[in-house]
Design brief:
The chain contains 14 helices and 6 strands. With 392 residues, it is mainly α.
Length: 392
Amino acid sequence: MKIEKNKMTIKLTNKKIIDQHMKILKSLQFESGLFSASKHTVGTGYDKAWLRDNFYECIAFEVMNDWENVKKTYRAIMDIFLKHEKKIDSAILQKPTYTHEYIHARYNPKNFDEFWEEWGNKQNDSIGCILFKVGELEKEKKIKILETEDDYRIVQKLVDYLSTLEYWHDPDSGMWEEEEEVHASSIGACVAGLEMVKDIEGISVNPELIRKGYAALAKLLPRESEKKFVDLALLSLIWPYQVTTPRQTKNILKNVEYHLLKNKGVIRYKGDHYYNKNLDNVSEEAEWTFGLFWLTIIYEKLGKSRKAKRFLEKSISTVTKDGEVPELYYSNTDKANPNTPLGWSESLFITALYYINHSHMGKTKGRKLGTGSKGKVVKKIVKKTVKKKTKK
């Protein structure tokens, strides 16, 4: 593969590129096992550990078969929940009224303490994603994460927590930690998580929790929320969660590519203020690098390798001259923001490279999107929801 940089062509094999970026990603890991979102020394606040970011940062280690690091990270995450178990108990007993009463999404990576400043702490998808990965590792990949009775107990409490919240219509701050709405991406993460842990011995999931989640998605998709008709976060429902029907998948991809795709990445949504370079703070949204890697992975898993390769080629331009992948670029520029490297971006870049490289040899890990029993379940629930609407 060739990378064009400053009119110089650097020839590197995919393996060397992956090794280079794995080294960067590993530099973000603390002794505890948790990853910071960006460098430990960054001054933006990204030296903290997010549950969601750790979920995505670990995916690169999974595809590289580095199960020791994966287990180390999820051991730390289990210990976070156990440390704050009394808070979880209170939230199960009575649905929280204030955002600080919810399970927080970010922690001190050294001692697992919460950060108490107001930060849109109500993020249901951060619980869904952890349940999803614990279930996937335990059931499909046969990697033991739940090692003690305490671990099983706390996972059961996470299920009960989502039940108390009635996550399928509970407004939260979502993946971007912003305004509270009912987000399709949060519902999808929760329903995927519940699906994954429901068959683990010792974990009980009421089937109604899953049915209501799928029914809510059927009503909301392809929108992200009442206010957002398209959002980068929706890609998570296609991969890794695989909770969309073929029609929903097609519509989400069409909308994201038409409305959000840019030169150096994918904007999160129309009118995004974060690192918006225009004086009006609206019309020149920042371009998020991992959107390109996400599209690469999705198209590869859909069996559309040619399109996947095109996105991968486009994504090469996101690597800085220092060899790092930033969080984002200012609109229509080569200027990255200070959150460079971003662990989430580094991980999805590695994952995209891995899948493209191994697809040539017919060794891509994981089933193709749209296969398996989950798709059938989604279709069945969507059909039931449509019938109920018709009867009314």
